[in-house]
Structures are given as structure tokens and as C-alpha cells.
Amino acid sequence: GPPLLPPPGGPGDAAGQALPVESRPFASYGSALHIALPQAPRAGQLLTLLIDYEAGEGPGVCWLSPEQTAGKQKPYMYTQGQAVLNRSFFPCFDTPSVKFTYSATVKVPEGFTAVMSATSWEKQKDNTFVFKMSQPIPSYLIALVVGDIVSADVGPRSRVWAEPCLIEAAKKEYDGVIEEFLVVGEKLFGPYVWGRYDILFMPPSFPFGGMENPCLTFVTPCLLAGDRSLVDVIIHEISHSWFGNLVTNATWGEFWLNEGFTMYAQRRISTEVYGLPYTCLEAATGRALLRQHMDATGEEHPLNKLRVVIEPGLRGVNPDDTYNETPYEKGYCFVSYLAHLVGNQSKFDAFLQAYVNRFKFQSITADDTLGFFLEYFPELKEKGVDSIPGFEFDRWLNTPGWPPYLPDLSPGQQLMRPADELAELWAADGLNMEAIEAVDITGWRTYQLVYFLDQVLQKSPLPEGNVKRLSKMYPKISKAQNAELRLRWCQIVLKNNLESEYSKVKDFLHSQGKQKYTLPLYRAMWGGSEATRALAMETFSATAPQLHVNVQNYVKKILGLGEAE
């Protein structure tokens, strides 16, 4: 219905004045709601609008049938706001440049529980839940889940939420570790302002590894590896508590302000907890992802800049397209370059803490960030570090392509070298089985195996028969349940046309719908043989209904199935 303006006399008077309202075209990802006010409001004046609306069909609200859940018994619904989908969930200023507090009352059917990204959660009678977020946040961080979910405590300010069939595994995987990461984060970046840090394990069709909804991070069930090997994704989401949620990019065109800083913060926490060699190894796998992304899209692609021009309209760039490796890994390189200019880790850590403190609860641009950096380090400003030839701040922001500066990852060499050498052995024409058998990979950490598989993939296709032997020799890899290993093994299977293991690709795509796992495999199948193209079509027609609508559309684009909506 039309928005209502309550009368100045306050409640108890007439019901309020109905206002003329119209929906105007805006972009392919939403229309604009125009409300005519009786008189132009003055700056600083408080205005109350009451908008009566219905929602539920749009892309921001996902309705899952029972078979799309882990438990397969009851339906499930969740919302996913980033980047510009929450406009289909509730009317809002759907831009990261506007922040607000919110409260919500949610009534659900018997046997269901509702949770939201809120600082307080209260269950009342009649299956009604009341939520309140007392800190200002941008629209994309409001999230709601309704499902058959239960919780278990894993720390003094943390609990895990999951479907009943997953709760034991979730508790076992995350008991105690979250608090450890939070404490390190607070030591590095300042107080954790959100009160609780809970984690919700989503159904397998959830398109992201994690979504940093404040107080309640959503994560893929792929993280339940059973051996705590993928907890670094949680470090990433925890890092967003400072970078992204507290200090936010004012536009999606500068998404690196959220993600580049969060990657840097994640790797700082990881260095404190797991040490430098391991963190450098993980960063090397990130660099490999950036390389793959730039090879797939072309270095000169306009999305491969840190400052992307968002152009609403048919041919322009949709804010959702900014979700790719560039803001993460090229952004990480730029933040690392700033640290390199400072030349002293504890000084740069102090800068990050001052930066968070200066801009907390605000939305900012790269100019704000870099201006504050030069103001904080006047001696660097004096030296003109923003215009060193080849490394100009302007070039970092506005030139597409490979980062001008790469941080030194050599401390990871002690973990990378054995993996590099083993990959060399497997890429050889005549396999030197004696040398291969001399390498014991039983003690290798997950990211060492991931790095090894990245090298094998780069060298693929391998000589005839080698991949088959590799598969037999390392069931730890070819039969892995760990999603990061499964992704890379599937890529290797496809690149080497190992038809006997195509079923593993199909199984993996049936088991989950994470965008970063799904799209690379469809790209690989579509760029391969007739057989892999057929596999792609067959797998997509079977799994499409369980994928998130954005992921469905991206896959359709890859497979050339009509114009993606």
C-alpha cells in the first residue's frame, strides 16, 4: 500500500496521511520507489514513513524445498543481501553508503526457528521472535533465516547454529577456536563491537563460503571438513567485523576497501595463530586464484581494476559482478604495498587500529583511506609515496591487470618447495616412482595439498596415464571430502580428460552450490571436450533448482543458455 506519514501530534491521532507513491525504472537489478512528501523536509528533521509492503518473490529471498536442505525434512528460507539484493526483501536505501539500526518481529510456523543479524534475539510466545540491531549497519548486512535449526555453545560469546543433523559436527569443528581468533583480532584491530559472534551453517546450496552478517556469520557446510582444516574462512569472516562491517566501502565500485583489507587482516590473524610459513602458503594459493581469474577474464578487463565503474543499465556493470578475485587478492596486494611503504609491521598494525577508530560506523571511499594513510604518516606524504613511478596510487586504483607489487611469500617456501618438487615429478614423461614414493605427504596440511594440486593443474594436461597413477597413489587427495581439495581434483580430472573420474565432478556439484566452486568447474567443462560439455549440461539440468538464482544465471551464461536474466 501507499506509505503513510504519521501526523505531527504523535500516536493516537488520525491514522496518518497517505502519500502519493510510484515505482520508477532504475536498473536491471531493481526499481526506485518514489514518495512525494507534502513539503520538502529540512536537514536534521526527523521524518517517519510507514511503508506497507509484501515481499518474497525477489532474488534476495531464497526459499528452499526440503530436499535442498541437509535434513531433507522441512523447508528453509534465508536472505542474501550482498550486494544489491535486499531491495527485494524490504524497501530500503540499498547502498552501502547509508547505515542504520533496525528492529524486527518475525512470526514463524510451529517447529521453526528464526535468527537474524542482530545484537539481541528474543523468543516470545506464539513462535514469534524479536530482534534488535543497536549498531548502525548498511542494508546488505541485514539477514534472516527461518528453518529447523538448533544451536550449541562453542565459546563465551559464540554459538553455532545448524540443522539438527549437522549440529554435532559443527560444535566439534569450531569448539574453542572462534574465541581464539576474536581475541587476536581485538589485539590487532581494536575492540569487537558487535557483542556476540555466532555462526550459522547454511544448507548446501548457499552460494558463498561465508557471509559476514554482523553477530551471525552465515557459512557453507563445506567448512565442516572434520579436521578443522578450513577454519581460515572463519578468520576471514571474523576480520570483516572491523573491515567491511565497521568501516564500509561507500560504493561497490571500491569493494577492495572491504575485501582487500579483510584479506590483509585475515592473514595478520593467521600469522599470529599459525605462523608466517603457513600464512604465506595460503596467500600463495590466493595468488594462484587471482592468476586463474585474470587468465580467464583477460588482464585488461574493466573488472580487474580496484576502482570499478558501476553503470546501471543493460550493458553496464552490475554491483554483483564486483564479486571476483580482484578486490580480494589485488586489494590484498595494495594493502600489503602500503605496509611495505611503512616498512614496520607494528607501526602498520597501529595505523590499521587508528584507521578503524577514525572511520568506524562510517562508509568511506578510497580517497578517504589513502588520504588518512598519508595524514597518519606525514613523512611518507612528504616523500611523495603516492606517486612513485610504476606504483602510483592512481595506477593501483584505475589500471586493470596484475598488481604492480607482490608481497614476499618466501617464508612459505619451506612448505611450498616439497610440493613444487613433487608436482615436477608427476609432470615428467617417464615417472620416477622411486623419487615419488620417497615423498611422504601424510603429514601435509590441507593448504600444502591445495598448493600441490594448483601446481599439478598448471602443468596439466600431464603425460598419458600420470593422473590415473596419481589418483591411485593418493586416495587422501582423490577421495577427499575436503571441498578445497575436491574442487582442485575435479579441475585436474577435467583438464586431463580422466573420464573414469567424471562422476566425481558430478557428485561434487550435486553436493553443494558455492559460487567459487561451481563456476570454475562449469567453465572447465564448457572449455573441454564434447564429453565434458555433455557432462555440464546433464549436471546443470539436474542441479539448477538447488542453486542460488545468481549462480544459476552465471552458469547459464557460461553454457550459452539464452540471455541470463
Walk me through what this model shows.
The protein has three domains: 63-241, Zincin-like (2-Layer Sandwich); 250-398, Orthogonal Bundle (Neutral Protease, domain 2), CATH 1.10.390.10; 415-559, Serine Threonine Protein Phosphatase 5, Tetratricopeptide repeat. Helix content is 41%, strand content 15%. The chain is built from 20 helices and 18 strands. It has a five-stranded mixed beta sheet with strand order 12-13-14-16-15. The protein has a four-stranded antiparallel beta sheet with strand order 5-6-11-8, with no helix packed on it. Strand 3 and strand 4 (30-35) form a beta hairpin. Mean pLDDT is 94; it is low at 7-14. InterPro entries: Aminopeptidase_N-like_N, Aminopeptidase_N-like_N_sf, ARM-type_fold, LTA4H_cat, M1_LTA-4_hydro/amino_C_sf, M1_LTA4H, Peptidase_M1, Peptidase_M1_C.
What does the largest sheet look like?
5 strands, mixed
Number of domains: 3
Distance, first to last CA? 28 Å
Structural class: alpha+beta
CATH class of the largest domain, anyone? Alpha Beta
Strand content: 15-25%
Low-confidence stretches: 7-14
Q: What's the count of strands?
A: 18
Categorize the overall geometry: globular
Q: What CATH architecture of the largest domain do you see?
A: 2-Layer Sandwich
Roughly what is the average pLDDT, rounded to an integer?
A: 94
In the sheet with the most strands, the strands line up as: 12-13-14-16-15
Number of helices: 20
User: What is the third-level CATH name, the topology of the largest domain?
Assistant: Zincin-like
